[in-house]
Amino acid sequence: MNSELLQNVIDESLKIPWCKPPAGIPGNHPPRNVCVLGDGSSIKKIKETIYLTKKAGFPQNVSYPLFQCYKSSSAHYKMRSIPKYTAQLILKLREIVKEKYGRNAINVDNMFNVVVCNYYTEDSHRISDHRDDERWLEFNELDKAGKPVASIIASLTLYIDDVPKILRNFELYNEESGTWEKNLLEHNSLIFFSNHRHRAKPVGKRGNSCKRINFTFRTLTDGLLGLTGYGNFYRYMSLPFKISIDKRHQDLIKYYQDSIEYSNNFNDKKIFEDDIQLLEVSNEEQKTKKDRLRKRYLSLGLNDLPRYVKPLCSHNNYENYINYFKKGSKFIIKKKI
Fold first, then answer.
1. Which residues contact 192 (CB under 8 A, 6 or more apart)?
2. Which residue among 82, 102, 170, 290 has the highest number of C-beta atoms inside a 10 angstrom radius?
3. What are phi and psi for residue 304, nearest 5 degrees?
4. 328 near 56, Cβ under 8 Å?
């Protein structure tokens, strides 16, 4: 890929709002700095001009349960758009997908509408063994029979200062052999995978690493399911501007306040407001609103959410999506970048 474009992406990446939000269990947090980019826009190139296109009225904010075991409280996030050079990079990635996957990839021109960003600044930073097989990812990879079976993910490595003598590893699990296969993460290297188990272990005792930024480009599906997916990514990769808090969960707010303090210090400027808006709610109130809005949503002939996703979709997401569907979803907004 073009070295000038990649340098612009590096420069751009140092300006995005990095954070270390609370994890799903109170007291935990991701062992690295994170960010997410994407607001429901798709990237289009018309002649030589690049646009972010989005249906009018698409929600600007998303919400998600505060913690895994505290779903009656929720955090609210302002979504952010994919910046200029990262958008240009996505167009290049689509070209590579067409070349690499051929007919085994579908809907490539709408691929990669969300970017999950990881910033490894310490040797101890890592990502644990997991699969990216969430229900809200669009299946755009076909099997031999032509059936959509997985969601293509592109993973880019960028070293910020120098290329280290000892490279970090990205490991993919081989289901057939039952072994982990190591991939050395060179500067500007690109790995494609889908719902494979994968991990990035911390650097060992052999030597210090260099700062590494990893972008993983993914594709969220349409509809309320995709909006819930945005909520998930923002919950675990950003910090909220507002919290709807069940009065029984007031003591959990401190975890977000601590994360905001750390993140602003890491960025060396005040990016996240430390005065989070708080709205006191009750479990019964939330449940009643959600049940009413879900019935209204289904009455419009829209697809119900999968069983395991329903508890993760707040009444705010239902309400925002219903308003979007009824008022603005027929018109396209184009923003030149």
1. 96, 97, 100, 152, 153, 154, 155
2. 82
3. -70, 155
4. yes
What sign does the dihedral 139-145-146-147 (CA atoms) show?
Answer: negative
Pairing type for strands 42-46 and 49-55 reads: antiparallel
Q: How far apart are CA 271 and CA 19, in angstroms?
A: 10
* Residue written as token pair 């997985």: 150
Integer Cα distance of 2 and 5 in angstroms:
5
| Bridge partners, 78 (sequence order) | 61
220 phi/psi in degrees, rounded to 5: -85, 145
Beta-carbon contacts of 280 under 8 Å, excluding residues fewer than 6 positions away, are 245, 246, 247
Q: Give the domain ranges of the chain.
A: 3-336
Overall CATH class of domain 3-336: mainly beta
Amino acid at 23: A
**DSSP label at 32?**
S
The predicted-structure confidence for 141-185, as pLDDT tens digits, reads as follows 999 999 999 999 999 999 888 777 778 788 888 888 989 988 888
Q: Which residues pair with 171 in a beta bridge?
A: 182, 199
Tell me: the pLDDT tens digits for 38-77? Answer: 999 999 998 889 999 998 899 999 999 999 899 999 999 9
Structure letter (DSSP) for residue 312 = G
Determine the Cα–Cα distance for residues 168 and 157; give it in Å rounded to an integer: 10
